[in-house]
Amino acid sequence: MTFIQDDFLLQTAMAQRLYHDYAATQPIIDYHSHLPAAEIAAKRQFNNLSEIWLEGDHYKWRAMRANCIAERYCTGDAPPFEKFLAWARTVPQTLRNPLYHWTHLELKRYFGIDTLLDGRTAQHTWDAADAQLNSGRLNALSILQKFNVKILCTTDDPCDDLRFHAAINEMEAGVRVYPTFRPDRALTVDDPASFNAWVHELEKATDLDISTMQTFRDALQRRHDHFHAHGARLSDHGLPYCYARPCPEKIADQIFQKTRRGEAASREEQEAFAAHLMIFFGHLDAQKGWTKQLHLGALRAVNTTRVLELGVHSGFDAIGDWPQAEPFCAYLDALDREGALPKIVVYNLNPADNYLFATAIGSFQDGSIAGKIQFGSGWWFLDQKEGIEWQLNALSNAGLLSRFIGMVTDSRSFMSFPRHEYFRRILCNILGEDVEKGLLPKDDALLGTLIKNICFENARQYLNLELPPIDEKSH
Fold it and tell me: pLDDT per residue over 122-152, tens digit each?
């Protein structure tokens, strides 16, 4: 049975035409992912479908746990095929969950497999996929080439070694892989053991003795410069909400010294220290013309027992419900007052806040760059059909959809690139339905340009990332 047909998710003739004629052939700029550059540089070969598909995928683990699957088949030591079989038996239970769409879209696009996945078809699916994985034609680099990914941005700690990015970009493989500067651990003065271990790593990475707040900032700037030299043009911060009440330099140094002595900062001290650094990071990004990404609203590691047992990124997180408007606007306002407001993409995790962010960004567009402050694509719990539609509708109603820089995978899986196709089909379906209702003109050139821009061109112009040579026919 063929489920993923040519017109999957496209409910009108206009939507079908817009997708096939304008969206489908656009290259991909995946400007936020968590893929490891080392595996791309090494052209990692995946031994089986479990390894490429289930390894690190907390979306699937959450569904399997809900389906009464034991942990050894999720993060544990069960044999690879048994893990896959447990997932295959879970798939029929995911109807109306985005995993059902993603599962079959990925099987179709990577392996040409049309069969609905369940316990009965698991062995056939496993064998068919393994035959292709073992052929050597589907490795970590060739996957990017297969899906016409022209730029991939990874997410990297300031202390990370960037030699793998350089190695990939010297291959002339038709794809560029750039690091993204994510200094979240610099804010963790409430956890002295982790913070001090990380500062030691930073000292080794910069060859500096970090003993004061000034030398701490010097080291961070040195790594920011190093990232820039390796092609980085984006930073990223994963925060519950913006920190917007910075303490003075003297107080920041006192908090720094306290943590270096092994004393945990209070919550108020941590937030003041974090705000001090976030202003500093804003200046660094603005000076270099970078884009700052803010991922806001995640309530992380809510099940402490399971997190202690299995670690972070294991699927024990939720949507948070903090007030967002005032701290977000205060942070942007503080940078704007200092003439240091960089390009910013804000990603919202709580759908209740969509219009909050969509309207707030309009107050900081300064006419210097089209769409300078972006309301980013739906992420994490909201990167499914309904969440994508919510984000697109809020942005359309409160801002300029035409200036949107499009979708990202935000993924740790090499199987996630069809999410760009998923997004593009949803976008075209929204526009096609509007045409059918008489809300938009039936003008292929007008709408086709909009689609091409959202899928590729806007990101190309906005991000200032160097592209590999591109076949003009591809877009």
Answer: 999 999 999 999 998 899 999 999 999 999 9
Residue 467 belongs to some domain of the structure: yes
Residues 223 and 333 in one domain: yes
Structural domain includes residue 274: yes
Is pTM beyond 0.90 here? yes
Per-residue pLDDT averaged across 255-279, rounded?
Answer: 98
Q: What percent of the chain has pLDDT over 70?
A: 99
CATH number for the domain spanning 77: value is 1.10.2020.10
Residue ending a domain, among 106, 133, 160, is 133
Q: What are the pLDDT digits (tens) for 280-299?
A: 999 999 999 999 999 999 99
Number of domains in the chain: 2
Task: With respect to residue 465, please indicate whether it lies within any of the assigned structural domains.
Answer: yes
Q: Which of 102, 133, 164 is the last residue of a domain?
A: 133
User: Which residue segment(s) compose the domain that 178 sits in?
Assistant: 140-474
Q: SS3 string of the chain?
A: CCCCCCCCCCCCHHHHHHHHHHHCCCCEEECCCCCCHHHHHCCCECCCHHHHHCCCCHHHHHHHHHCCCCHHHCCCCCCHHHHHHHHHHHHHHHCCCHHHHHHHHHHHHHHCCCCCCCCCCHHHHHHHHHHHHCCCCCEHHHHHHHCCEEEEECCECCCCCCHHHHHHHCCCCCCEEECCECCHHHHCCCCHHHHHHHHHHHHHHHCCCCCCHHHHHHHHHHHHHHHHHCCCCEEEEEECCCCCCCCCHHHHHHHHHHHHCCCCCCHHHHHHHHHHHHHHHHHHHHHHCCEEEEEECEECCCCHHHHHHHCCCCCCCEECCCCCHHHHHHHHHHHHHCCCCCEEEEEECCHHHHHHHHHHHHHHCCCCCCCCEEECCCCHHHCCHHHHHHHHHHHHHHCCHHHCCCCCCCCCCCCCCHHHHHHHHHHHHHHHHHHHCCCCCCCHHHHHHHHHHHHHHHHHHHHCCCCCCCCHHHC
* Confidence category of residue 472, pLDDT binned at 50, 70, 90: very low
Decide if 32 is inside a domain: no
How would residue 406 be classed by pLDDT, with cut points 50, 70 and 90?
A: very high
Residues 118 and 238 both lie in one domain: no
